Structure prediction request, 189 residues.
Amino acid sequence: MPGTFAFPGASMDVWVPLALRPADRDSHESRWLQTIARIDRRSLAAANARIQAAMTTLGADLPKSNADWRARSVPLHGVVVAQARPTLIVLSLAIACVLLRLALLAVPSILAWRTVREAVTLVSIGAIVGFAAAIAAGQVMASLLHDVSAYDAATFAGALLILLTTAVLTAIGPARTVAGIDPSVTLRS
Prediction:
């Protein structure tokens, strides 16, 4: 076996041939022996065909004890995982249900923040365009009027503060409406 093979566990260091006692070897009623072999996955059908041929021969040679017995080759991974598969499926479904419930609980707050964020984004774009237009208009006014500054920082900051405050206050109403919607009721309708 390759160095990476570790069955039944990594603590197994030595493999010895199976030494059956004569009583065990001559008993055809025992069905306790399981074997592990390394074969190519593509030759699984061929291995099963050879096993079935051997079982047919054994059944003909010993019809009293082996006539109705069958054997087959299965991938070790399938046998090991097959026992845990139902538990893993149930656990995965339970986790999916919990995550879905958490997502449904978070939907109203997500939608509310999205509504406020979209309003602030649109107002910010408008503020940038308005700031550029205000600078251009300020330069025109400065050239027309005596002792007028084109760049008054306090005026620009006050206008921006009023604009953003108005945007947030205006977006709070629709955000509260969206946050009040029950997603399960919406999904049912």
User: Anything to note?
Assistant: Helices lie at 22-26, 44-61, 63-66, 76-144, 153-179, 183-188. The mean pLDDT is 78. Residues 33-74 form one domain.
